[in-house]
Amino acid sequence: MITIALPKGALLKDSIRLLKSIGLDFSAFLDDTNRQLQLVDSTQTAKGLLVRAQDVPVYVEYGQAQLGIVGYDVLREKSPKVAHLLDLGFGTCRMSVAVKATSPYRSALALPDNCRVASKYARCAREYFQSLDLAVEIIPLYGSVELGPITGMSEAIVDLVSTGRTLQENGLMEIEVLFTSTARLIAHPLSYRLNVYGMQTQIEALRQTIAQPVA
């Protein structure tokens, strides 16, 4: 039986909707009264694991799940040894540099050398500023990174932005976009090559589903 790692949070509802379109129903994960972290779909052909988004590629890389759905932002930050199969086209957001709206800086290159940048995505931030040949101090934060510039701990942040409302409500503004992130289908490389549990059938069904034009 194929095992699919599903992400808690913003991508879960659309992930379940997509899988249901190919006959794999994990809707029970959306029930607030359900506390199961593992369940078999209604057709008894696949098992779902409900895990933190950051842990999806870990379960796939180590073979506890053959397939997984996760944001591209997590893949960029974690750089796991998994096969990247499909852009699923939902969960669109962007990784951006933001500063206080009152800041004099209006581009990443305008930031001063050795300034502080707070981020949950330390690797993405570090690689980006290295590509600009700009020396900055990356401060890892795992809560509300918006507080970095607000409190004066950092001149800027690197974080995921969807609507931009949270930034605006906290007096921040975007000045650069590093990349766009969407939900991706990933696979355990060896399982994918060997077509374990006939997983290519589900992958092809998903490929055809997302390729269909919207009516």
Verbal overview:
The protein has 215 residues and is of the alpha/beta class. The protein folds into two domains: 2-91 and 182-211, D-Maltodextrin-Binding Protein, domain 2; 93-180, Periplasmic binding protein-like II (D-Maltodextrin-Binding Protein, domain 2, 3-Layer(aba) Sandwich). The protein has eight helices and eleven strands. It has helices spanning 12-20, 56-61, 72-78, 122-131, 147-151, 165-169, 189-194, 199-211, and strands at residues 2-7, 38-40, 46-51, 67-71, 83-87, 93-100, 115-119, 136-140, 156-161, 172-181, 183-187.
Key terms:
215 residues; single chain; D-Maltodextrin-Binding Protein, domain 2; six-stranded mixed β-sheet; 2 domains; alpha/beta; 11 strands
Please state the CA-atom Rg, rounded to the nearest Å: 19 Å
How many domains? The number is: 2
- Calculate the terminal CA-CA distance, rounded to whole Å: 34 Å
Structural class: alpha/beta
CATH homologous superfamily annotation of the largest domain: Periplasmic binding protein-like II
Return the CATH class of the largest domain.
Alpha Beta
The number of helical runs is 8
Major β-sheet strand ordering: 2-3-1-4-11-5
- Strand proportion, as a percent range, falls in 25-35%
Specify the biggest β-sheet. 6 strands, mixed
Named at the architecture level, the CATH assignment of the largest domain is: 3-Layer(aba) Sandwich
* Helical coverage, percent range: 25-40%
